[in-house]
Amino acid sequence: MDIASGLPPDTPVWRHAATPCLEPAAAEVLLRVSGVTKYFGQRAGCIDVDLELHAGDVLAIAGESGSGKTTLLNCISGRSQPDAGTVEFNTRHEGIQDIYRLSEPRRRLLARTDWGYVHQNPRDGLRINVSAGANVGERLMAIGGRHYGNIRTATHDWMNRVELDAGRIDDMPVTFSGGMQQRLQIARNLVTHPRLIFMDEPTASLDVSVQARLLDLLRGLTRDLSLAAIIVTHDLAVARLLAHHLMIMKDGRVVESGLTDQVLDDPQHPYTQLLVSSVLQA
Ligand SMILES: Nc1ncnc2c1ncn2[C@@H]1O[C@H](COP(=O)(O)OP(=O)(O)OP(=O)(O)O)[C@@H](O)[C@H]1O
Ligand SMILES: [Mg+2]
Protein backbone atom coordinates (compact mmCIF):
# COMPACT_ATOMS: atom_id res chain seq x y z
CA MET A 1 0.00 0.00 0.00
CA ASP A 2 1.37 3.36 -1.00
CA ILE A 3 1.44 5.56 2.05
CA ALA A 4 -1.14 8.33 1.99
CA SER A 5 -2.62 7.33 -1.33
CA GLY A 6 -4.26 4.16 -0.05
CA LEU A 7 -3.58 2.57 -3.43
CA PRO A 8 -2.54 -1.04 -3.94
CA PRO A 9 1.09 -1.57 -4.92
CA ASP A 10 0.33 -2.42 -8.56
CA THR A 11 -1.31 0.96 -9.20
CA PRO A 12 0.74 3.03 -11.69
CA VAL A 13 3.39 4.69 -9.62
CA TRP A 14 1.84 7.84 -8.23
CA ARG A 15 4.88 9.53 -6.93
CA HIS A 16 5.14 13.27 -7.11
CA ALA A 17 6.12 15.06 -10.30
CA ALA A 18 9.57 14.07 -11.43
CA THR A 19 10.96 17.54 -12.07
CA PRO A 20 13.49 18.20 -9.35
CA CYS A 21 12.76 21.25 -7.30
CA LEU A 22 15.33 23.91 -8.01
CA GLU A 23 17.34 25.26 -5.13
CA PRO A 24 15.58 28.42 -3.97
CA ALA A 25 18.75 30.47 -4.31
CA ALA A 26 19.24 29.37 -7.92
CA ALA A 27 15.70 29.67 -9.19
CA GLU A 28 13.79 32.79 -9.90
CA VAL A 29 11.14 33.68 -7.33
CA LEU A 30 7.82 33.76 -9.14
CA LEU A 31 5.42 34.40 -6.30
CA ARG A 32 5.90 35.57 -2.74
CA VAL A 33 3.02 35.59 -0.29
CA SER A 34 3.60 37.21 3.11
CA GLY A 35 1.27 37.36 6.08
CA VAL A 36 -1.88 36.95 4.01
CA THR A 37 -4.96 37.17 6.22
CA LYS A 38 -8.62 37.32 5.31
CA TYR A 39 -11.62 37.47 7.64
CA PHE A 40 -15.31 37.24 6.84
CA GLY A 41 -16.72 39.26 9.72
CA GLN A 42 -15.55 37.42 12.83
CA ARG A 43 -14.84 34.24 10.93
CA ALA A 44 -11.30 33.55 9.80
CA GLY A 45 -10.80 32.64 6.16
CA CYS A 46 -7.02 32.37 6.28
CA ILE A 47 -4.53 33.73 8.78
CA ASP A 48 -0.96 34.91 8.35
CA VAL A 49 0.01 32.68 5.44
CA ASP A 50 3.50 32.87 3.93
CA LEU A 51 4.70 31.00 0.88
CA GLU A 52 7.19 31.31 -1.91
CA LEU A 53 7.04 29.68 -5.32
CA HIS A 54 9.76 29.44 -7.94
CA ALA A 55 9.38 28.98 -11.66
CA GLY A 56 8.06 25.48 -12.36
CA ASP A 57 7.23 24.64 -8.71
CA VAL A 58 4.02 22.79 -8.02
CA LEU A 59 2.47 23.34 -4.59
CA ALA A 60 -0.53 21.49 -3.22
CA ILE A 61 -2.66 22.97 -0.45
CA ALA A 62 -4.60 20.37 1.53
CA GLY A 63 -6.77 20.39 4.63
CA GLU A 64 -10.29 19.66 5.76
CA SER A 65 -13.36 21.46 4.47
CA GLY A 66 -13.50 25.01 5.79
CA SER A 67 -9.77 25.16 6.55
CA GLY A 68 -9.32 28.18 4.26
CA LYS A 69 -7.87 26.66 1.08
CA THR A 70 -10.16 28.43 -1.38
CA THR A 71 -9.99 31.69 0.55
CA LEU A 72 -6.20 31.60 0.36
CA LEU A 73 -6.22 30.68 -3.34
CA ASN A 74 -8.56 33.56 -4.09
CA CYS A 75 -6.33 35.99 -2.20
CA ILE A 76 -3.20 34.76 -3.99
CA SER A 77 -4.77 34.78 -7.45
CA GLY A 78 -5.96 38.36 -7.28
CA ARG A 79 -9.61 37.46 -6.95
CA SER A 80 -10.13 38.60 -3.38
CA GLN A 81 -8.09 41.27 -1.62
CA PRO A 82 -6.70 40.12 1.73
CA ASP A 83 -7.26 42.21 4.86
CA ALA A 84 -3.54 42.06 5.58
CA GLY A 85 -0.36 40.82 3.96
CA THR A 86 1.09 41.05 0.48
CA VAL A 87 1.07 38.97 -2.68
CA GLU A 88 4.02 39.70 -4.95
CA PHE A 89 4.45 38.32 -8.45
CA ASN A 90 7.51 38.47 -10.65
CA THR A 91 6.06 40.02 -13.79
CA ARG A 92 7.70 39.48 -17.17
CA HIS A 93 8.52 43.10 -17.83
CA GLU A 94 8.49 44.95 -14.53
CA GLY A 95 9.92 42.47 -12.07
CA ILE A 96 8.36 41.85 -8.66
CA GLN A 97 5.06 43.68 -8.19
CA ASP A 98 2.59 43.72 -5.30
CA ILE A 99 -0.48 42.56 -7.22
CA TYR A 100 -2.94 44.52 -5.10
CA ARG A 101 -1.05 47.73 -5.81
CA LEU A 102 -1.50 47.27 -9.54
CA SER A 103 -4.46 48.97 -11.15
CA GLU A 104 -7.50 46.74 -11.67
CA PRO A 105 -7.00 46.57 -15.48
CA ARG A 106 -3.35 45.58 -15.09
CA ARG A 107 -4.22 42.92 -12.56
CA ARG A 108 -6.88 41.58 -14.92
CA LEU A 109 -4.41 41.53 -17.79
CA LEU A 110 -1.97 39.57 -15.60
CA ALA A 111 -4.76 37.13 -14.77
CA ARG A 112 -5.48 36.61 -18.48
CA THR A 113 -1.88 36.25 -19.59
CA ASP A 114 0.58 35.05 -16.97
CA TRP A 115 -1.91 33.23 -14.78
CA GLY A 116 -4.56 30.63 -15.30
CA TYR A 117 -7.38 29.63 -12.97
CA VAL A 118 -8.99 26.22 -13.25
CA HIS A 119 -12.28 25.95 -11.37
CA GLN A 120 -13.52 22.79 -9.71
CA ASN A 121 -16.66 22.93 -11.81
CA PRO A 122 -15.67 23.40 -15.47
CA ARG A 123 -18.86 25.34 -16.11
CA ASP A 124 -17.56 28.11 -13.84
CA GLY A 125 -14.48 28.45 -16.01
CA LEU A 126 -16.04 28.05 -19.46
CA ARG A 127 -18.43 30.12 -21.50
CA ILE A 128 -21.09 27.54 -21.94
CA ASN A 129 -22.96 29.25 -24.78
CA VAL A 130 -20.06 29.50 -27.23
CA SER A 131 -18.24 26.69 -29.05
CA ALA A 132 -15.28 24.76 -27.65
CA GLY A 133 -13.01 26.48 -30.15
CA ALA A 134 -14.28 29.93 -29.22
CA ASN A 135 -13.67 29.16 -25.55
CA VAL A 136 -9.98 28.63 -26.28
CA GLY A 137 -9.60 31.16 -29.10
CA GLU A 138 -11.17 34.08 -27.28
CA ARG A 139 -8.37 33.99 -24.73
CA LEU A 140 -5.92 34.65 -27.54
CA MET A 141 -8.10 37.43 -28.91
CA ALA A 142 -8.25 38.98 -25.43
CA ILE A 143 -4.48 39.45 -25.54
CA GLY A 144 -4.43 40.86 -29.05
CA GLY A 145 -4.62 37.82 -31.35
CA ARG A 146 -6.34 38.97 -34.57
CA HIS A 147 -5.45 36.47 -37.26
CA TYR A 148 -8.34 33.99 -37.51
CA GLY A 149 -6.25 31.24 -39.10
CA ASN A 150 -3.54 31.43 -36.44
CA ILE A 151 -6.08 31.45 -33.62
CA ARG A 152 -7.83 28.45 -35.14
CA THR A 153 -4.53 26.58 -35.51
CA ALA A 154 -3.48 27.33 -31.92
CA THR A 155 -6.90 26.22 -30.66
CA HIS A 156 -6.66 23.03 -32.67
CA ASP A 157 -3.20 22.33 -31.24
CA TRP A 158 -4.35 22.89 -27.69
CA MET A 159 -7.35 20.62 -28.09
CA ASN A 160 -4.94 17.92 -29.22
CA ARG A 161 -2.57 18.60 -26.34
CA VAL A 162 -5.30 18.11 -23.77
CA GLU A 163 -6.41 14.99 -25.66
CA LEU A 164 -9.68 16.38 -26.94
CA ASP A 165 -10.92 15.45 -30.40
CA ALA A 166 -10.11 18.59 -32.41
CA GLY A 167 -12.86 17.52 -34.83
CA ARG A 168 -15.24 18.79 -32.14
CA ILE A 169 -13.85 22.32 -32.23
CA ASP A 170 -17.22 23.76 -33.26
CA ASP A 171 -19.27 21.76 -30.74
CA MET A 172 -20.75 23.45 -27.69
CA PRO A 173 -19.22 22.58 -24.29
CA VAL A 174 -22.60 21.29 -23.04
CA THR A 175 -22.25 18.39 -25.46
CA PHE A 176 -18.98 17.38 -23.74
CA SER A 177 -18.64 15.03 -20.79
CA GLY A 178 -17.45 16.41 -17.44
CA GLY A 179 -13.91 15.17 -18.06
CA MET A 180 -13.87 16.70 -21.54
CA GLN A 181 -15.15 20.01 -20.20
CA GLN A 182 -12.36 20.01 -17.64
CA ARG A 183 -9.80 19.40 -20.43
CA LEU A 184 -11.31 22.25 -22.39
CA GLN A 185 -11.05 24.52 -19.38
CA ILE A 186 -7.39 23.58 -19.07
CA ALA A 187 -6.77 24.30 -22.78
CA ARG A 188 -8.51 27.68 -22.40
CA ASN A 189 -6.19 28.50 -19.52
CA LEU A 190 -2.95 27.31 -21.07
CA VAL A 191 -3.30 28.71 -24.58
CA THR A 192 -1.83 32.05 -23.48
CA HIS A 193 1.23 30.28 -21.99
CA PRO A 194 0.79 31.37 -18.37
CA ARG A 195 3.68 30.86 -15.97
CA LEU A 196 1.45 30.12 -12.99
CA ILE A 197 -1.80 28.26 -12.83
CA PHE A 198 -4.21 28.05 -9.90
CA MET A 199 -6.47 25.04 -9.57
CA ASP A 200 -9.20 24.53 -7.00
CA GLU A 201 -9.99 20.80 -6.73
CA PRO A 202 -9.53 20.30 -10.49
CA THR A 203 -10.51 16.64 -10.44
CA ALA A 204 -12.98 16.47 -7.57
CA SER A 205 -16.09 16.66 -9.75
CA LEU A 206 -14.98 13.76 -11.96
CA ASP A 207 -15.34 9.98 -11.86
CA VAL A 208 -12.34 8.20 -10.37
CA SER A 209 -11.37 6.66 -13.74
CA VAL A 210 -11.51 10.05 -15.46
CA GLN A 211 -9.60 11.64 -12.59
CA ALA A 212 -6.58 9.41 -13.08
CA ARG A 213 -6.20 10.33 -16.76
CA LEU A 214 -6.68 14.01 -16.10
CA LEU A 215 -4.08 13.91 -13.33
CA ASP A 216 -1.63 12.26 -15.71
CA LEU A 217 -2.31 14.98 -18.23
CA LEU A 218 -1.80 17.73 -15.66
CA ARG A 219 1.41 16.16 -14.47
CA GLY A 220 2.73 15.99 -18.03
CA LEU A 221 1.74 19.57 -18.77
CA THR A 222 3.25 21.11 -15.65
CA ARG A 223 6.48 19.20 -16.32
CA ASP A 224 6.72 19.87 -20.07
CA LEU A 225 5.81 23.54 -19.83
CA SER A 226 7.77 24.24 -16.61
CA LEU A 227 4.50 25.61 -15.40
CA ALA A 228 4.23 26.61 -11.76
CA ALA A 229 0.98 25.59 -10.14
CA ILE A 230 -0.92 25.90 -6.88
CA ILE A 231 -3.42 23.10 -6.52
CA VAL A 232 -6.04 23.00 -3.81
CA THR A 233 -7.07 19.46 -3.03
CA HIS A 234 -8.51 17.47 -0.18
CA ASP A 235 -6.98 14.35 -1.74
CA LEU A 236 -3.47 13.58 -0.54
CA ALA A 237 -2.97 11.17 -3.47
CA VAL A 238 -3.44 14.10 -5.86
CA ALA A 239 -0.83 16.06 -3.91
CA ARG A 240 1.53 13.07 -4.01
CA LEU A 241 1.17 12.73 -7.76
CA LEU A 242 1.40 16.33 -8.83
CA ALA A 243 3.13 18.47 -6.26
CA HIS A 244 6.72 18.97 -5.18
CA HIS A 245 5.58 20.87 -2.10
CA LEU A 246 2.65 20.37 0.20
CA MET A 247 1.05 22.77 2.64
CA ILE A 248 -1.49 21.58 5.21
CA MET A 249 -4.09 24.02 6.50
CA LYS A 250 -6.36 23.88 9.52
CA ASP A 251 -8.67 26.61 10.80
CA GLY A 252 -7.19 29.12 8.36
CA ARG A 253 -3.58 28.54 9.38
CA VAL A 254 -0.75 26.58 7.79
CA VAL A 255 0.10 23.84 10.27
CA GLU A 256 2.78 22.10 8.22
CA SER A 257 4.57 22.55 4.91
CA GLY A 258 7.50 20.99 3.11
CA LEU A 259 8.45 18.60 0.37
CA THR A 260 5.41 16.46 -0.43
CA ASP A 261 7.07 13.10 0.20
CA GLN A 262 8.54 14.33 3.46
CA VAL A 263 5.25 15.69 4.75
CA LEU A 264 3.35 12.54 3.78
CA ASP A 265 5.96 9.98 4.82
CA ASP A 266 6.98 11.68 8.05
CA PRO A 267 4.25 14.08 9.13
CA GLN A 268 5.26 16.20 12.12
CA HIS A 269 2.07 17.97 13.12
CA PRO A 270 -0.59 15.86 14.89
CA TYR A 271 -3.23 17.12 12.45
CA THR A 272 -1.17 16.02 9.43
CA GLN A 273 -0.57 12.67 11.14
CA LEU A 274 -4.33 12.31 11.51
CA LEU A 275 -4.96 13.21 7.86
CA VAL A 276 -2.36 10.74 6.61
CA SER A 277 -3.52 7.93 8.88
CA SER A 278 -7.17 8.48 7.98
CA VAL A 279 -6.28 7.93 4.31
CA LEU A 280 -4.43 4.76 5.20
CA GLN A 281 -7.41 3.42 7.10
CA ALA A 282 -9.96 4.34 4.40
N1 LIG B 1 -17.86 34.43 1.15
C1 LIG B 1 -17.77 34.03 2.41
N2 LIG B 1 -18.51 34.61 3.38
C2 LIG B 1 -18.40 34.23 4.67
N3 LIG B 1 -17.59 33.25 5.11
C3 LIG B 1 -16.82 32.64 4.19
C4 LIG B 1 -16.88 32.98 2.80
N4 LIG B 1 -16.01 32.19 2.12
C5 LIG B 1 -15.44 31.38 3.05
N5 LIG B 1 -15.93 31.66 4.28
C6 LIG B 1 -15.52 30.98 5.53
O1 LIG B 1 -14.09 30.94 5.58
C7 LIG B 1 -13.65 29.68 6.07
C8 LIG B 1 -12.75 29.02 5.02
O2 LIG B 1 -13.54 28.68 3.89
P1 LIG B 1 -12.94 28.14 2.53
O3 LIG B 1 -14.03 28.14 1.52
O4 LIG B 1 -11.72 28.90 2.22
O5 LIG B 1 -12.54 26.65 2.95
P2 LIG B 1 -12.00 25.45 2.07
O6 LIG B 1 -10.79 24.92 2.77
O7 LIG B 1 -11.85 25.88 0.66
O8 LIG B 1 -13.18 24.37 2.21
P3 LIG B 1 -13.73 23.29 1.13
O9 LIG B 1 -12.74 22.15 1.15
O10 LIG B 1 -15.05 22.89 1.72
O11 LIG B 1 -13.84 23.96 -0.21
C9 LIG B 1 -14.91 28.88 6.40
O12 LIG B 1 -15.17 29.03 7.77
C10 LIG B 1 -15.98 29.55 5.58
O13 LIG B 1 -17.23 29.43 6.20
MG1 LIG C 1 -12.75 25.26 -1.15
Polypeptide structure, described:
This protein has 282 residues and is of the alpha/beta class. The strands form two sheets. A six-stranded mixed beta sheet has the order 6-7-8-3-9-10, with helices on both faces. The longest helix is centred in the last third of the chain and has 17 residues, at 208-224. The protein has helices spanning 69-76, 104-113, 122-125, 132-142, 148-161, 178-190, 208-224, 236-242, 260-265, 270-281; strands at residues 29-40, 43-54, 58-63, 84-91, 95-98, 115-118, 196-200, 228-232, 245-250, 253-259. The protein has two domains: 1-114 and 195-282, P-loop containing nucleotide triphosphate hydrolases (Rossmann fold), CATH 3.40.50; 126-193. The site of adenosine-5'-triphosphate has 12 residues, from strand 2 and helix 1. Residues 40, 43, 45, 63, 65-71, 234 line the site of adenosine-5'-triphosphate (ATP).
